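Hi F.,

I've been meaning to write this up properly since the lab meeting, where we talked about keeping a consistent format for the predictions we share between groups. The idea is simple: the sequence comes first, exactly as it goes in, then the structure tokens exactly as they come out, then a line or two of notes. No screenshots and no reformatting. I'm using this chain as the first example so we have something concrete to point to.
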Amino acid sequence: MTSDELKPCPKCKSSDVAIEIWPDNPLGPLRVGCKACQYSPDWWENTREEAVEYWNTRPIEDALRSEIELLVKAARYLLNNIYEFGAPTDSVIIEAVEDALSKVSHEQPQKS
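Output, unedited:
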């Protein structure tokens, strides 16, 4: 995503979003809004870059993506150790971890 691309609407997930220009607004002339559901945050910016940055900031989503990435790495580490060292090879545990990993990352672990 380039710095001027807009994320979909956080309310309805539509990609039909655009920068709104209100030149006489004393709070700032620019904000981003969704054309599909009419959602616009009550926040105005002075530059296009600031408006895009504000719209694209999603702290909860970013935190969840980081957590998922960490869990995927942990699952890969666990499976690699099981495959490499023959740690408890309970087939139920291996199958459950592989299934969870495939659902989250759409990748299959590499067997040694």
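Notes:
The radius of gyration is 22 Å.
The chain has two domains: 1-57, 61-105.

If this format works for you, I'll send the rest the same way.

G.
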